[in-house]
Amino acid sequence: MAETPQGQETLSNLLHESRRFPPPEDLAAAANVKADAYAEADDDRLAFWAKQAERLKWEQPWDRVLDWDPPFAKWFTGGTINAAVNCLDRHVDAGRGDKVAYHWEGEPGDTRTITYAELKDMVCQASNALLELGVEKGDRVAVYMPMIPETVVAMLACARIGAVHMVVFGGFSVDALGTRLDDSAAKVVVTADGGYRRGKPSSLKPAVDEAVKDRPAVEHVLVVRRTGQDVDWTDGRDVWWHDIVDRQSTEHTAEGHDAEHPLYIMYTSGTTAKPKGILHTTGGYLTQVSYTHWAVFDLKPESDVFWTAADIGWVTGHSYIVYGPLSNGATSVMYEGTPDTPHKGRFWEIVEKYGVTIAYMAPTAIRTFMKWGEDIPAGFDLSSLRVLGSVGEPINPEAYTWYRKNIGGDRTPVVDTWWQTETGAIMVSPLPGVHSGKPGAAMRPLPGIAADVVDEKGESVPPGGGGFIVVREPWPSMLRGIWGDPERYKDTYWSRFEGLYFPGDGAKRDEDGDIWLLGRVDDVMLVSGHNISTTEVESALVAHPKVAESAVVGATDPTTGQAIVAFVILRGEAGDGGEDLVKELREHVAASLGPIAKPRQIMVVPELPKTRSGKIMRRLLRDVAENRELGDVSTLTDAGAMDKIRTAFGAGS
Ligand code: 6R9
């Protein structure tokens, strides 16, 4: 926005939301974290984080909490720790080996219940197998898997022996896998023959074969048999998991790794440039993931059943399916498939079956459920739920209230958690026992997190102001850099504002001082000199009873600079649209936000282009709206979606 002629403008502040949902009294009274945590952390931030680090088992205590050589941070230096020991051995040694770590549910309905003791044995065996395959401490291991327990086992086996896991979402293309293998120089790829999605086996091994063909750096491909489909086999290189892992000893003596030893690399796809390998290390990452999982969800490990309905190939899966829940000794649900297979009530059936108490998912899923209608969840007993979470995009106020009412029985707090691959763990979120929830707002930086909303010059904005979210001080689970590219790390995150971490999101602070996230700064539209956030126009559209989901982009326009083009998916009962509805929707946006926000065009489409985490890829929609060739589509979950949208756009314009 600095580049716009109206450089002084802030993001607009168009939406007004006055609904408030105070925490249930019993939840507030028994909450893990109360309001005093903020003052405690403000008083001595490093002492606060040191206290949280003591939740974990350290092989050797740290000498210093933080070494800060901006923008490079080291946390808990001198300490040694093993992430797998913290996730497994610690609980087994304390007599909790029989506790269920995962209730795993396959898409076809097959299930596995895995205790902490069993998971530890599996991880020790896999550790021994990786060692036999020649994997050494510091080597990178790619994991290209469906959502099955072996995915977690492979990650923890790497962590145990000090290898660095690099999980690639199983829905990514050969190209996306290939560039990640090159950049990380992975030595082994762990994969499966395939997994189940939408009622049928989808394959993974052929993509690995194709990607590994010209990449001699990959010495072995370790293959889990999941679906039983035929696979091509390269002798010497390919190894069946059941051949090598099952015959290993369940004993493996783990050593403590340096607190700053790399734990994993996770690639984020930039909008145009080559993907960035975000590096996380061990001690600080585990500290913040463990603390936030316990604090933000008010986790009671003895009684809760926690479910992050997301893919492990997204950072949300790393932090809140694997490291957070396991480090806290929680019981989690893990589900392999899609929410509509074999029926649209699948998620709610799972909640009922396992008595899920805390559920965490993306707004895109919630909007899909809205589209399918409230009768579907109403058919299941969801009374076990006590906290709901949202992550991945700003949650539209309408989606928030729908979620709270139809899934949470108008009883559960909803925590809207803002964070990124780069931040490693949750950064901004209400606490369920402290705050009155505000639909659409992530509200407060967590205790110990120095997030702020600033203007163009990097100065804090007062209540009612808008600008950019930044982080002023290092935090334990922050990225330690971009794999192999320290300059790009500085340029991308630390050059926009002197001394501040810039995540790239727009934000505003309301009159109560609460933070609202407004989407990626790259997506902000400039219409006749006014900055308008895509999020706000989308939320206005979703508030219309006939709209389930929408994506808004700014397209070049000869008169207004940019004009608003909206793509909408209608709710099940709304029919196919038609000119009258489009007119009604344009008027509806103008009435809710003001005439300046009235879309120039509204296209009714059957689908929207999404990433693995359900984020709308607005740059592709911009390409459509401006009649350009599509940019990189290798990280799209469903490549067919764009053809349908182009067709709809062509027919409507
Ligand atoms: C965890 C995750 C990061 C980007 C982030 C922001 C968006 C995530 C959000 C949210 C508004 C929330 N985002 N959570 N925006 N409210 N609660 O999603 O990581 O895939 O790296 O994406 O997602 O734009 O910058 P990642």
From TrEMBL:
CoA binds at R197, R198, G199, K200, T316, S528. Residues 94-483 form the AMP-dependent synthetase/ligase domain. Keywords: Acetylation, ATP-binding, Ligase, Magnesium, Metal-binding, Nucleotide-binding. InterPro entries: Ac_CoA_lig (IPR011904), ACAS_N (IPR032387), AMP-bd_C (IPR025110), AMP-bd_C_sf (IPR045851), AMP-dep_synth/lig_dom (IPR000873), ANL_N_sf (IPR042099). SUPFAM superfamilies: Acetyl-CoA synthetase-like. Coiled coil: none annotated. Its cofactor is Mg(2+). Residues 36-87 form the Acetyl-coenzyme A synthetase N-terminal domain. It comes from the Bacteria. CDD domains: ACS. It catalyses: acetate + ATP + CoA = acetyl-CoA + AMP + diphosphate. It holds the Pfam family AMP-binding. PANTHER family: ACETYL-COENZYME A SYNTHETASE, ACETYL-COENZYME A SYNTHETASE 1. Catalyzes the conversion of acetate into acetyl-CoA (AcCoA), an essential intermediate at the junction of anabolic and catabolic pathways. AcsA undergoes a two-step reaction. In the first half reaction, AcsA combines acetate with ATP to form acetyl-adenylate (AcAMP) intermediate. In the second half reaction, it can then transfer the acetyl group from AcAMP to the sulfhydryl group of CoA, forming the product AcCoA. This is Acetyl-coenzyme A synthetase. It comes from Nocardiopsis endophytica.
